[in-house]
Amino acid sequence: PEAVTQMPVPQLWSFLFFGMLITLGLDSQFTMTETITTAIMDQYPNLRAHKGKVVIFASIIGFILGLTMCTRGGIFMFELINWYSASWGLLICAITEIIVIM
User: Fold this and answer.
1) Are 54 and 40 within 8 A, CB to CB?
2) How far apart are CA 65 and CA 71, in angstroms?
3) pTM of model > 0.70
4) Are 58 and 32 in contact (CB under 8 A)?
5) In the prediction, which pLDDT does 46 show?
6) Do residues 92 and 98 touch, judged by C-beta distance below 8 A?
7) Can you tell me the mean pLDDT for 3-23?
8) 3-state DSSP assignment of residue 7
9) How far is CA 24 from CA 9, 18, 21, in A?
10) pLDDT digits over 48-94, tens only?
11) Which of 9, 22, 41, 102 has the most CB atoms around it within 10 Å of its CB?
12) Does the pLDDT of residue 4 top 90, yes or no?
């Protein structure tokens, strides 16, 4: 944000920058919700008639799980999730998948 203040018309660039951040965040949430609901409906095909309820249920569960990040131990919860979801395990799973597909 400090670099934005050095540009001509900094208000416009600030608006565009933070607008971009908001749209990236919303897009990530839509993708996660769609992934979870698709996995649930593939596992239980009889829920396809109730897609709206499944999406609402997944969103509520995600909201409740996200509330733990707003407590005093929120940074600890974030570090746990960050370490175990985006660490060596993810890399090993990706490499194993590539080897199996080849």
Assistant:
1) yes
2) 11
3) no
4) no
5) 94
6) no
7) 89
8) coil
9) 23, 10, 5
10) 999 999 999 999 999 998 898 898 988 998 888 888 877 787 788 88
11) 41
12) no
Written as one letter, the residue type at 94 is A
Token pair for 50 = 């109730």
Which two structure tokens, joined as six digits, stand for 34? 């769609």
What tens digit of pLDDT does each residue of 18-44 get?
999 999 989 988 998 999 999 999 999
Burial class of residue 45, CB neighbours in 10 A (0-12, 13-18, 19+) = exposed
The residue type found at 13 is: W
Helices 51-67 and 10-43: crossing angle, nearest 10°?
120
Amino acid of residue 68 = T
3-state secondary structure of 2: helix
What's the rounded Cα separation, in Å, for the pair 78 and 69? Answer: 7
Structure tokens that stand for 57 in this block: 């249920």
